[in-house]
């Protein structure tokens, strides 16, 4: 095990445990407290929650840290079942990193669903037919596979890279980096082969991330514009669509600030000899581990049925009471 600091060692574990509490609770709320107008979108919300728990599992099995080494950076496993096996460890750290791109894929699927609801509602059900489910699954897997492939083909270390980073590891962590599973990018002070491979890998991941952000902004703009123009929907449907869109925008901001921006900073700071090891281990890695916990909380906050149900359970709000001649019915809330 490589001990970095208390926050890096313990906060991801705390977030992981809380994720396994909040996400099942969120699934329960989606199943029991969703209005009928939400339709099959509830299945996408459940899928996101399941993904969040798998993400937390990956965080616990393959905790990673980052070290700057001059004109390069190193992402390495600090503990876990893959720590002592270089081959499995390389696959482990690459697979752990690919969860960033898979979270992007799920958000794109959500944006596409919201887009179809407003522009092509007669095509929405096709997303949940066999062919639609297969396409979404392949799209999701392709995102993760591409990220993993780039990491292992372009950022996997060779003997030259291990020679370069060995002094930094000995100085900071007092361990021999030859026995550590890691990914690395080296922008200068290395052979042309290493430098070109690093640039190709980081540029590919950057372009891939930018494509995802572009899809969010383009579809988000179209969805927002359509909602402002659409006069053919009932008030309930309009309110529900606005609530879900707000939740989706907030869900998008989480990976943007917890994944996209931190990784971009971590990738490119070494080009200017800026050592951000503290940033990567105190902020970046902890923010990444918090994503599966924050995501369901955001949705609960923006959907009144979910939020009010929790407030009632916590005795922070009284249930609304509807009375007729035969019975008294307690309802958590209405849209």
From TrEMBL:
Membrane spanning residue stretches: 14-31, 43-66, 93-116, 128-150, 199-223, 279-303
Keyword line: Membrane, Transmembrane, Transmembrane helix
Signal peptide: none
Pfam families the UniProt entry points to: 7TM_GPCR_Srj (PF10319)
InterPro entries for this protein: 7TM_GPCR_serpentine_rcpt_Srj
Protein name in the entry: Serpentine Receptor, class J
Highest classification ranks of the organism: Eukaryota, Metazoa, Ecdysozoa, Nematoda, Chromadorea
